[in-house]
Amino acid sequence: MKIAVIGTGYVGIVTAVGLAEFGHTVIGADKVSEKIEKISHGDVPIYEPGLAELLKANLKKGTITFSSDLNGTIQAADVIFVCVGTPQGDDGSADMSQIEEVSRLIAENLNGYKVVVEKSTVPVKTSSWIKRTISLYKKSDQEFDVASNPEFLREGSAVSDFLRPDRIIIGVETERARDMLTEIYADFKDRLFITNIDTAELIKHASNSFLAMKISYINLMADLCERTNADVEQVAKGMGLDPRIGGLFLKAGLGYGGSCFPKDLKALIKIGEDLGVNMNLLKETDRINVERTRHFLEKIKRALWILKDKRIALLGLAFKPETDDIREAPAIKLIRDLLNEGAILRLYDPEAQANMKELFPEDKVRITYVKTPYEAVNGVNALLLCTEWKEFSELDFGKIKGLMANPIIIDGRNIFRPEAVRKLGFEYYCVGRK
Ligand code: UGA
C-alpha cells in the first residue's frame, strides 16, 4: 500500500513521518515547492520535539519522500490522507476551500481505487461533500471511498501522541476502506474505534470542545476562588480525584489558545446553530476564555496602578510550552493591551520569539526581545508569566530579585509556590489562589 499525505502543515508532517515510522511507504506532498525542498532535506519548518530526528531517520531509510507534484502523488497512492488547513472563516465556520481544491485534484487523478481519508479537523458532513465533489469531477469510472480519521495530537508532544495513540478513530462506510485503514494501523488493533463517518467527524470537534469547556470551567471556579478563601489548585485536585471527572485539563490560568481549541469550538457552535441546536453552553465556554486576559490585565493594574512607562518583563510567548506556535496565544492579546496602556515591554520565550517578532517588531524603545529570562527582568517593575515553560520553574529567584526594580511577579499559569516566592520578598499574584 502506498500512502500519500497531502499538506505538510503541522498535522500533515507529523502524520507523514509517523506513518513512515510505522513502516509504510509514504509520499508527503504540498503545492508550496519551497517547503517541500526544505523538508526533503530534513529541515522541519516547525519546532516539535523529536520530529526532525524522526524525519531524518525515515528519509535515510527511504520510507518517506516528498513531492510538490500533487497530480503524480495522487496517482501513485492507494490511500490519500488529506491534511490541508481548515482555517476559521469570518463567521466562525471552518473555511473548506482547500479541502475542496484537493478533492477536485483527487477526482482528476483517480486512476484506480483509492481511499481518501480526512485527517484535518472538519465539520461533520464534510465527507459527503468530498464524496460529491470527487464524483462530480472524476473523469473515469474508477471507484473510491471516503473515510475519516481525525487527529488528536497535541503540539509539543505530537510525535509521541502519533506513535503511541490512546485511541484511533476511524469512520468508514465500506468494508474495503475499513480493511485498508485497519491494515495501516495494524500495530494498534486494540486501540481502534471504528464507526460511521459522521460520528468520527463529530468525535473530533466534540473532544476539543469538551476539553476547552473543562478549562473554562476551572477558570470560572478560579474566579470564585479569588472572591473566597478557596484555592483553585486544590479544587482541581479534589475534583480530579473523582475518576468520572479526571484531573487533566483542569489547570486554571490564562485560558486556552492555539490553532485548535478556539477555532474548533467556534466551528462547532456554527455547525450546531446551522442545524438548529442551541449552542449556548459552548458560547459561554468561549466567553469565559476570552475574559482571561482582561482579568489578568486587571491584576497587573492592581499591582502597578498606572501602566504608562512601566517596564514589564513578559516570560512565555508561545500558546503553551514546547512549541514555537503563537497562534491565539494569550500573550498576543496581553502585549497589545499593555502597549495600548503605554507600558515598556521586555519579551522572552525559548522558541517563539521569532514568530512574535513578526507580529510585534522590535523597536528597542517599547518592545525589546531578550535572550534570557534574567535579561528580561533587568530593571523591570514587574514580571509576568504567560507560558509554563519548564525553565521558568527553575529560575534563580535571588538573582531575579536583585535584577528587578520592584520585586513583583504576576503568574498567569500558577507555576510558582506562593509562600516560597513571598518568603523571598516578592509581591506575588496568581490565578484563583491567594
Ligand atoms: C489540542 C488537543 O489537546 C489535541 O488532542 C488535538 O489533537 C489538537 O488540539 C488539535 O485539534 O489538533 P493543542 O492545541 O496542541 O492540542 O494543545 P493542548 O495541550 O490541548 O492545549 C491547548 C490550550 O489549552 C493551551 O493554550 C493550554 O495552555 C491550555 N490549557 C490546557 C489550559 O489552559 N489548562 C489545561 O488544563 C490544559
What does this 3D model show about the protein?
This protein has 434 residues and is α/β, with parallel strands linked by helices. Helix content is 45%, strand content 14%. It contains 18 helices and 14 strands. Strand 1, helix 1 and strand 2 (25-29) form a beta-alpha-beta unit. The chain is globular. It starts with a strand and ends in a 5-residue tail after the last strand.
Task: Describe the sheet with the most strands.
Answer: 6 strands, parallel
Q: State the CATH superfamily name of the largest domain.
A: NAD(P)-binding Rossmann-like Domain
Supply the CATH architecture of the largest domain: 3-Layer(aba) Sandwich
Count of the domains: 3
End-to-end gap: 58 Å
Strand share of the residues? 5-15%
At the third CATH level, what is the topology name of the largest domain? Rossmann fold
Structural class: alpha/beta
Low-confidence stretches: none
General shape: globular
Q: Care to count the β-strands?
A: 14
- What does the average pLDDT come to? 96
